[in-house]
Design goal:
about 325 residues; alpha+beta; 2 domains; 8 strands; globular
């Protein structure tokens, strides 16, 4: 007799299918003149790899913020029933298992990727629950201009910053490790210039010993391309005018050249996220410090009120004792 209670398991998603989808989407975007769309997507999805950004955009073009089900639950939001997940790639890293001198098993994970798994994520539009806490908002520059400026500068180690009477908005000197901004600019102009100069310093100073992307001998304006894109992503994230994005001339590029260029886009993502994360961390630390100060002030106020009440009770008791003594009690 046939067993009708058997459960049919869904086949495990094939990572190779999604690798091919991401790579074909990338080539389609580039050949279709959508390089700027890739860069624009980093403003919201930049904490994901380029492949995963393209997978997200190919499956849900209107996505702005995505997370796993557990990630949304942690933020006290739940997935709306019936929502179809977005498939992305999760790297599997090489692990080595050894034993120490005491015979204990020691497991170490390297940064070498051995393969991929397929993970499910959901866009914020597919969730419901408590409002999402975001550190960078439309009011960030209005409320924390000095904090943002300091945080951006802190992403660039070993440089000094100054203002002076110069012809351009900013000048980068990599030899002296200085950045000079033009005097007299308003706050937004100043931050926009600062972002571009820091992005330039990070691009120029990047270690490329093992880099597999295109270099200046293959694409002469590649440095300007990377700088303008990284600065654009950071500026747009902070609500500033992003500025022009230099585009690569792909008319003579082969598909292999374009795949190499994806590593240059990876540089844009890495540098822009370094700067954005630096601002977010600074805003988070500032909020925690202010909350802690508020708690301490509240505790101090409560302590003062309690001390005052005790003093009042003690004074009242003494007054009553004195009155009884004067009455001969």
């Amino acid at each position: 007799m046939e067993n009708t209670n058997q459960t049919t398991l869904s086949p495990k998603p094939d990572p190779q299918k999604y690798i091919e989808l991401a790579d074909s989407t990338y080539l389609s975007f580039m050949r279709g003149g959508k390089y700027k769309d890739i860069i624009a997507g980093m403003t919201d999805l930049g904490d994901y790899t380029l492949r995963n950004q393209l997978l997200i955009q190919s499956q849900r073009p209107d996505a702005t913020k995505v997370n796993t089900m557990n990630g949304w639950n942690y933020r006290k939001r739940h997935i709306v029933k019936g929502s179809e997940s977005i498939k992305i790639l999760a790297p599997v890293f090489d692990k080595t298992i050894t034993t120490d001198t005491a015979g204990n098993v020691v497991e170490k994970t390297s940064d070498y990727v051995t393969g991929y798994n397929v993970n499910s994520v959901f866009d914020i539009s597919q969730t419901d629950g408590e409002p999402l806490k975001e550190w960078i908002t439309g009011k960030t520059l209005e409320q924390h201009p000095a904090l943002v400026e300091t945080a951006l500068k802190d992403t660039l180690n070993g440089y000094t910053f100054a203002e002076g009477q110069i012809e351009t908005d900013g000048v980068l000197d990599t030899r002296k490790r200085t950045i000079t901004l033009k005097s007299g600019m308003d706050e937004k102009q100043k931050l926009t210039a600062l972002i571009r100069q820091i992005a330039a310093a990070l691009v120029v100073g990047r270690n490329r010993d093992r880099f597999q992307g295109l270099r200046s001998e293959q694409l002469p304006n590649i440095t300007a391309i990377e700088i303008s894109a990284a600065a654009n992503v950071v500026a747009r994230k902070l609500g500033l005018e992003g500025g022009a994005v230099a585009e690569p001339d792909i008319t003579k590029m082969t598909d292999e050249d374009l795949q190499k260029f994806s590593n240059n886009i990876g540089v844009v993502r890495s540098i822009s996220q370094l700067m954005i994360t630096g601002v977010e961390n600074a805003l988070s630390a500032d909020a925690k410090e202010k909350n802690l100060a508020a708690v301490r002030a509240s505790e101090a106020e409560a302590f003062t009120e309690t001390t005052t009440e005790k003093t009042t009770v003690k004074t009242t008791t003494k007054s009553r004792s004195k009155a009884v003594a004067e009455m001969g009690g």
